[in-house]
Amino acid sequence: MGKLMHQNLYTLAKALHAQHLDTHGTLQTLLMHSGEGIGVHHGCLLTFDVDDKLRHIYVIGSDDISEVQSRATWEAFLQRGFAGHVFHGQRQVVVRNIASDPRWVVNKDLHAIPQTGSAIGIPFSTDNKVDAVLILAHNDVDYFTSERLAFLEEVTEIAEYAIRNLKQHDTFKERTFDTRYEAIFEHTPVPVVLTDENGIIVDANYQACEFLGFQRIVLRGIPFQDVNVVSAEELAELDPEEEQHFRTETYDIDGNQIPTLIRARYIELDGSQYVEWVMQDMSVQMELEQLRSDLTAMVYHDLRGPLGSIHMAIVKLAELLQGHDNPAVLKIMQLGLRSAQQVSRLVESLLDIQRLEQGATMLDKKPSEVHVLLTDVLQLMQAQAESHGITIDLDIPSVEPVMMDDDMISRVIINLTENAIKYTPDGGHVLLSAERVNKAVMFTIKDDGPGIPPDMRDSIFDKFSRVKYQNAPKGVGLGLAFCRLAVDAHGGNIWVESDGKNGSSFIFTLPVTEDNDLTQVPTAPLNDFAPQANDAEGTDKSSPSESSFATTA
Ligand code: ADP
């Protein structure tokens, strides 16, 4: 087959695809392109119902889908004419010379039928039933050469595939699914679209029509990709076994792109596979996320600078006031300094949360001495602990230096220690320890507080997660979220152990090797989640000026 004919076949396949299962469009496209592909200007396509009744009549060059007036003539053509031969014989018939072939019956009422030249009739069949007959005629005798026949053979294959798709689609439209699914589908308060395995929409529920702004009839038969940016690759990669969630954008009738969360899964209805696409409009969440990120940017630009100045001013003032005869002055200075440091840590951690969540690699790692790190934290926290009669002890056997961003890890330890002090009753005890375990150093911050209920031992590391103790100290629930992100960024693990009676131990590990073999880095023991009788009550020791900042950092 020549290059031009190949190109014509490709054009036909593309044109059919663009018809999105529209019956008239598909059949007209088939007729037009098969004629054009081999330079034929006379021809028609007849389609048949399930009971073999003539259904549609398409004529090359005529836009009339069904020439009602002449239907009787066409039926006669089918009964006694050439079309009848092809339809009843169920096979291709070539008439090499119209003028001398008795099968070519000329009907004077059908002006479109040529009286000289050659013709071909091809049945399009699916499931052993002739669905349509294509007739092409040319003014030249013996026009249908083997090359043109080869082209028409390919057309037949494409046509039968397209007709099969149309039939399946029509059956789907007529079919009522499992009534339970149908009821859920229709009345579910979220937009749901159903596609076949090729991504062609077969149905859309009321909410989806509202969301997209299209009528159901318009949505049926078009590719899902026409209303959603889901790519062909994503479609192809859908796992039949597993529900998948992803963020995409949806186009509505006005061309707006709406951020959408999609939940896609394969479902079987009446023995066939379909994909169910549940859509969630994310516009409001996205706006909130934007607001949050603007707020963080504001914090970054507008709070960080002035805070640094306050911090420096207090340090300078304290220097100037060294040796002041009123000891209260120095105490006030120290309190001011501590508070400024706490707010600075809060700001830094807020910024770190945002950056770490975005996956930014921002660690300034260097070898750090573990005992120096813990001793510094102890000194920093000492005054706060003493004001509540809490003792803090250190237990650090000799541990080699660990590669870490020490500013970030020290804020992790401060956070955990501040929490330990905040939740430990007055007169209690906090222990900071570190030890080498396999290929990691394991840090533990142990307290005498109320412990963490078993069902929250994982979730308290989520943002804004807080245990609802009675009289709980103030906080926003960002401290532990920061700790987890920071430890994760170092390739370590963080968890809490608590037996529900003797306080909690917040534990985190940092790998001591850089060889990326993290299999030896300890993680939370699986059996740690021992049941706890009831949530112990927290004691509120937070003074607004000090510890309310502590765990929010
Ligand atoms: P915040 O302290 O600001 O609420 P965190 O993220 O630091 O935020 O802590 C989250 C929650 O975990 C706290 O609200 C508290 O309910 C619980 N929690 C944290 N540390 C302890 C602790 N040492 N003892 C008991 N509960 C704790």
Overview of this structure, please?
- With 553 residues, the protein is an alpha+beta fold.
- It contains 15 helices and 17 strands.
- Helix 1 runs antiparallel to helix 2 (23-37), helix 1 runs parallel beside helix 5 and helix 2 runs antiparallel to helix 5.
- It is rod-shaped.
- Mean pLDDT is 83; it is low at 527-553.
- The structure holds adenosine-5'-diphosphate (ADP).
- Residues 419-420, 423, 447, 449-450, 452, 460, 465-467, 475-481, 504, 551-552 line the site of adenosine-5'-diphosphate.
SSE blueprint and pairings:
Layout: H1 3-18, H2 23-37, E1 42-48, E2 54-59, H3 71-80, H4 82-89, E3 93-95, E4 118-126, E5 129-138, H5 146-174, H6 179-187, E6 192-195, E7 201-204, H7 206-212, H8 216-219, H9 232-236, E8 244-251, E9 257-269, E10 272-281, H10 283-320, H11 327-357, E11 366-368, H12 370-386, E12 391-395, E13 402-404, H13 406-423, E14 429-437, E15 440-446, H14 479-489, E16 494-498, E17 504-511, H15 547-550
Parallel strand pairs: 12-14
Antiparallel strand pairs: 1-2, 1-5, 3-4, 4-5, 6-7, 6-10, 8-9, 9-10, 11-13, 14-15, 15-17, 16-17
Bound molecules: adenosine-5'-diphosphate.
